[in-house]
Every structure is written in C-alpha cells, then in structure tokens.
Amino acid sequence: MGASTGDAVLRRLMEICGPQFARAGGPADAVAGTEPRWVAAPPHAEAAGHVLSQAARDGLSVVARGAGSKIDWGVPPAGLDLVLDIGRLAGVRRHADPGLLVEVGAGTPLRAVQTVLAGVERRIAVDPPSEGPTIGGVLAADETGPLRHRWGSPREQVISIRCVTLDGEFLELTGDALRAFGDAGGFPGAFGHAGLLGGYPRRPARLAGCADPLPGIITAATLRVLPRPGARLWVSRTVTSPLEARDLVLGIRASSAHPDAVEIDLPAGRPAGVPRQRGTRDTAGTLSILLEGDPAPVGLRSAVLVELLGGDAAASGAPPHWWGRTPFDTGEVGLRIDVPPADLHAAVYALRDAVGAPVPVRGRAGVGVIHAALPATLTPARVSAVLDALRGILLARDGSCIVLTAPAPVRAVVNPCGP
User: Fold this and answer.
1) How confident is the model at residue 142 (pLDDT cuts 50, 70, 90)?
2) How far apart, in Å, are the Cα atoms of 126 and each of 261, 270, 386?
3) Would you say the C-alpha torsion 128, 130, 135, 141 has a positive or negative sign?
4) What are 339-356's pLDDT values in tens digits?
5) What is the pLDDT of residue 193?
C-alpha cells in the first residue's frame, strides 16, 4: 500500500472516529511484536461498524484491543494493519431488572463495573487474573478466576451480547444463538488472541487475517448480577505433593462445605535443570478454599472444612497473597492446562517430568483449570519438546494445554493450541 493510499485510509478513519482518535500506529501498539499501521478508537458501536466495513473494503487486517491485558496471548497475527481500540465503547447502563442484570459497554474496565454494582450491594461473579481487563476482553477470552468453581465461566454470566460483524452488520445474540457460538468456540470477541484462547479446546476460533475469522467484536453485553456476600473466609492448608492436593480436593468436592472456590499454589521446588537430591522433598504448596455467604453459615462451613482438611488447616478473613494471580512473569512461558480434577496430580507430575524439575503451578484445582510457568531459560526447542510430551499425556486424560504467553522466539516455533 503506497503512502498516498495510506494517507487516504487514515483520513477515512479520522472522519469516522474524530481527528484525535485515529492515528498512525507505534511500538506501544504492537501485538506480539507486530506493529500496526494505524490505530482507531470509535466513539460508539455504530462507528465501530463503520470502521470494520471500511477496513473490509480496504482489505485491512484488524485486531481489537480493550485494556491490552491479553493482547500478546496466543498466536501472533500473520499481518496487522489496524488496531481497533474499543476503550470508548464503555459505560454501565441501567437495565429493566437492575437487581438481576446489568448492561455494560465492551470497553468498560471490569473494576469500574464492580465499583458501580458495589454501590447497590451487587457484583458480577467474574474475577479474572489479568491486570485491569475490560468486559469485552474478559468475555472474548472467557478468562476465569477462582469464582469459576461455583458460578462458572464469564460467558456463563452473559444473557445477551451485541456485536458488529466483519462487514459492519450489527447483531444481538441471546438464548440458543448465544450458546451456539460459545459451544462452537466462535463466541464473538475481540479479534485477537483472546477469542482464539477462549474458543479452545472445542474449536479454536481464528485470528483476523487468517482463515475463518471470528464473527466480529463485542460492543456491549448484558450480564447477570448477584448479591454481594456478607462474609468471606479462606480456609488454607499446606500440601506436600500434587497427589495429596488431589485427594484433598476430591474430599472437599464430596463434602457439605459447598466451597465457592478451591485454589492450589505449588511453587517450584528448585531451578529447572537441577536434579532432585535423594532424600529431599519439594517445596510445600498451599490449598486454599473460599467460603462466601451470610456470616453464621460461613463460620459453620469453615469449621467443617478445617476438620475435614486436618493438618495445619486454618481459616482467615484475608486471601493468600497469591490468590487469583497467574504464576508466570514477563519473559516466561505461561501455560493453561485443563484436565479433570481427578487427574490434576497426573498433569502436574507430567509437566515436572517433561521439564525435569518442578515449575510453578497455580489455579482452579476444584475444576481442573490451572496455570503454569516454564522458565525463561528454556530454549524454544526445549519448550516445544515439553509441550509435546505434556500434551501426549493430557490427550489420554481428556485434557489440553495451551500457551497463553511466551517470548517471540518461542512463539515462532510452538503451536499455542497443539494438534
């Protein structure tokens, strides 16, 4: 595309979004290392539709961006012309049933939604680990936190969504149509990695610019809201092995404690590549269970759990420092592993065997969705070998492993979603 043609594209974007809200892309706008030519921030859903239809006419590849908290997750785009910033598609709107439902613009930060609802003693049962995500990004990725144990994934909180298709058509999806998109892995979301990751493992949705792109972007969603709990307690216990953690989790699931979340934190016992010394034990981990509700019942349930767990189990009014956080840092390879809870220990042991040492593991032990961090020191070839070995074990146990984030050299050689 020549310079004059590029200038014309930018002028058209400015006409739609306003002169201050369409510009040339820069390094800060890069998606997994790919810098876009332009960035446009439409003021409302109709303008977003005009941007998409114009992009289709100009043959532009597009990635949508909310807060950018997961912009580098998943497969790097093969090409990127335009970042569609949905930050202006924001706002918490009244609903006919304000005590039961809330309508939210896709660019609204989740934190802002929860703050508004807290004023009427309500909340959305959504607590993703990423930093400052928007509603659109959370739904596109179906990014779950501890509350998934009781309330399900963010998509399960959705009553309806409004979206704009690739050619600028406006849709509202409810009921069977909404469920059909979710079950097929094609839930309309931000074009980029969040949509791909949210669709896995049923059928990975495709990135913009690749075959079979997502239907469009979310512009707004109506979600169910719940009363804020009157009390919250965390019951925590030290665990010495993944097998012990698995046995405790199965006991909790079968008990009358009715936990609202069951989380595990297994830190790395020693650096990768350092062999286990005979007679030594791995660093102890922690199993932590959240109980919510009215104060008296929560107190009774916590007593049941403390007795059931034994050991050093104790209740606290504050969560562990690691609660609701992923274990990987910048530069590390971040994995999401899905496996039946009864096979959680097998997944952790398989990962340790593949790496040759324990690695940090943390997440939803009660539903079998955990995150793991591979050391930044592993070469891309080594990471690929680890993934092949781990996925082979998980396949036999109805599990899966996807790469959420990784350095560019690793992304270049691994398949984030596997075979």
Assistant:
1) confident
2) 12, 34, 32
3) negative
4) 999 999 999 999 999 999
5) 33
Considering only residues 280 and 151, tell me which one the structure prediction assigns the higher pLDDT. 151
Q: CA-CA distance, 194 to 216, in Å (whole number)?
A: 13
Residue range 139-159: mean pLDDT, rounded? 92
For the record, the structure tokens of 57 come out as 């006419």
- Determine the Cα–Cα distance for residues 386 and 365; give it in Å rounded to an integer: 22
How many Å apart are CA 251 and CA 305, to the nearest integer?
10
The Cβ of residue 227 has, within 10 Å, a number of other Cβ atoms equal to 11
Calculated CA dihedral for residues 337, 339, 341, 346, nearest 10 degrees: -80
According to DSSP, the β-strands at 216-224 and 101-105 are: antiparallel
d(C-alpha 217, C-alpha 191), whole Å: 6
Q: CB 276: neighbour CB atoms within 10 A? A: 14
Contact predicate 154/222, CB 8 Å? no
Query: What letters, b where the CB count within 10 A reaches 16 and e where it falls short, cover 183-197?
Result: eebbbbbbbbbbbbb
> 261-276: per-residue pLDDT in tens?
999 999 986 433 344 4
176 CB neighbour count, 10 Å cutoff: 8
User: Which long-range contacts link 386-393 to residues 24+ away (Cβ below 8 Å)?
Assistant: 386/351, 386/354, 386/355, 387/414, 387/415, 387/418, 389/350, 389/353, 389/354, 390/337, 390/347, 390/350, 390/351, 390/354, 391/418, 391/419, 393/346, 393/347, 393/350
Q: Cα separations (Å) of 383 from 34, 331, 395, 402, 406?
A: 22, 13, 18, 12, 10
Task: Please confirm whether the linkage preceding 201 is cis (ω < 30° from 0).
Answer: yes
State both tokens at 8: 């014309």
Q: Using alpha carbons only, give the angle 296, 300, 303 rounded to the nearest 5 degrees.
A: 140
What is the radius of gyration, based on Cα positions, of the chain?
Answer: 22
Residue type, 276: R
Task: Indicate the SS3 state at residue 31.
Answer: strand
The reported pTM is 0.84
